[in-house]
Amino acid sequence: MKKYDIAISVILILVSGAMFTAAGKLPEVDGAIGAGTWPRVLSVMLFLLAALMLIQALMGASKEEDPFDVRSPGFRRVLIGGGILAAYCILMKFLGFMIASAFMIPAIMRLMGEKRPWMLVGITAVVLAAIYVIFAVLLKLPMLQGSLL
């Protein structure tokens, strides 16, 4: 697994550099946090974690075992999760953030093993309400509206 850890960490370091550069092109605000601040923070965090992974792999802390089995239930769940996120991106374009999120949150929760309907509905409602209050009401940021709405 050492060679996989090295390859993945190098790829992530390159991705973090691309993120940092792209975030620098976002508009700046004098005396305030601009649109590129959070993506830059995330890119620095990604770089640091990828560098740590690379150091661990080079120092021999990685285990020499198969990274994954494509027939395992865990790998199947990863593929389903990727499908859910792809569908979410498409739904968000047409239905907007709030409606698409109302489908995505319980779908991911169900994928992760939550089966109680009241929990799926309750957590989805609380998360969406919190997002709306924080971003639309307090920060006065517009919520992404879909093209069908």
The rounded Rg comes to 19 Å
Shape: flat
Record field, number of beta strands = 0
Mean pLDDT across all residues, rounded? 88
Total number of helices: 5
Q: Which series of helices and strands comes N to C? A: HHHHH
Helix/strand structural class:
mainly alpha
Spans of at least 5 consecutive residues whose pLDDT stays below 50 are none
Helix % is 55-70%
* Main beta sheet: none
Give an overview of the whole structure.
The structure is a single chain. The protein has 149 residues and is mainly alpha-helical. 70% of the residues lie in helices and 0% in strands. It is built from five helices and no strands. It has helices at 2-23, 37-58, 73-95, 97-111, 117-138.
Write the layout of secondary structure elements.
Layout lengths: L1 H22 L13 H22 L14 H23 L1 H15 L5 H22 L11
Helix pairs in contact: 1-2, 3-4, 4-5
Task: Quickly list its features.
149 residues; 5 helices
Give a nutshell description of this structure.
With 149 residues, the protein is mostly helical. It is 70% helix and 0% strand. The N and C termini lie far apart (48 Å).
